[in-house]
Amino acid sequence: MSFSPLVERLMESLRVLPGVGPKTAQRMALHLLERDREGGRRLTAVLGEALEAVGYCRRCRTLTEEEVCTLCRSTRRDERVLCVVESPADMLAIEEAGGYQGQYFVLHGHLSPLDGVGPEDIGLDRLETRLAEEPIEELILATNPTVEGEATAHYIASQLQGRPIRLSRLAYGVPMGGELEYVDGGTLSRAFLGRQPFAGD
Amino acid sequence: MSFSPLVERLMESLRVLPGVGPKTAQRMALHLLERDREGGRRLTAVLGEALEAVGYCRRCRTLTEEEVCTLCRSTRRDERVLCVVESPADMLAIEEAGGYQGQYFVLHGHLSPLDGVGPEDIGLDRLETRLAEEPIEELILATNPTVEGEATAHYIASQLQGRPIRLSRLAYGVPMGGELEYVDGGTLSRAFLGRQPFAGD
């Protein structure tokens, strides 16, 4: 025995959500149907609207329903620095950390030839155009410190050979507040290689 | 800085789902918008349809888009036994455990005067009608072994005083496969009170 066809289909479709297995999907479906149909209707409406209206910012490619996102429209950001990230979530994390005042460019992924993800798929042609049209002096390659992220950063760097643009990468090292004992070897050795003169202030 | 208004609204509305906090809602919203718009559209469609079409079975009150659910329409179920449960999930759990061949009645909750949940709200009037119209000989009160579940079971029992209907409650005791060491005191003492002659087969 199971639930009625439609209820079963609802549970099935809830599983498109990341980290939602059969049990959680069942709990969600029953919760919406038994306790919060109003919230469910709101979710249907907003999700439908978002899937239709939300696209990429024409300038930085972050997710937005506007043609150009708020950050790109802001006049208080430094136009000479551009930070390349893999996802809008990375962009938000950097903004919340604070301190960075430049612009962004979102790849929505990383190069992955095996999965057929090439330069155009992550908007590198668009990045080229921006570098040509805007007074950008420094490009910060803030892709993830993973094999794919590294490869993508190196590819972008190789494409900019000989351009009058300073390229930089986020510093590798031990995370603040972390205990050396628990830091992985790779990170630790990178931290040694990248060691800085002690300011001692 | 945050995401665009519409993306923020999507994250907000995803929080109607049980167990979904801000971080999970963000992950879900970005996943749907960046990686699975098709799945998102399916979810919108099915959820919308379910919220409109799914109601209660006229006979047992479980969730179904049909007027009478499959189980109630089945001719292979014993019409003389009726099991009262708090939710469709409990009904499914009992069916999956197997062995029970009778009918069901779903309360969709329990009596809770403080929250203004009275007999009609959990369909007890409907239960009365069934008991009057159907050849029911035994009523199994399978509400949860919680204070509210107990109270609800006792209320139903009190309403059926003097009727020629056998009333029963699920057995309390130590869970199968559980270790006594970890069973709570209340359960343990109920297990002693309800001890059975040892069959020794």
Structure report:
Chains A, B: One of its GO terms (molecular function) is zinc ion binding. 2 copies of one chain form a homodimer. Chain A is built from 8 helices and 6 strands, in the order αααββαβαβαβαβα. By secondary structure, chain A is α/β, with parallel strands linked by helices. The first copy, chain A, has 2 domains: 5-53, RecR Domain 1 (Helicase, Ruva Protein, domain 3, Orthogonal Bundle), CATH 1.10.8.420; 56-169, Dna Topoisomerase Vi A Subunit, Chain: A, domain 2, CATH 3.40.1360.10. In chain A, the strands form 2 sheets. In chain A, strands 4-3-5-6 form a 4-stranded parallel β-sheet. Chain A has a two-stranded antiparallel ribbon with strand order 1-2. In chain A, strand 1 (55-56) and strand 2 (63-64) form a beta hairpin. In chain A, helix 1 (5-14) crosses helix 2 (22-34) and helix 2 crosses helix 3. The relative contact order of chain A is 0.08. The model of chain A has no long low-confidence stretch (mean pLDDT 92). At the A-B interface, helix 1, helix 2, helix 3, strand 2 and helix 5 of A face helix 1, helix 2, helix 3, strand 2 and helix 5 of B.
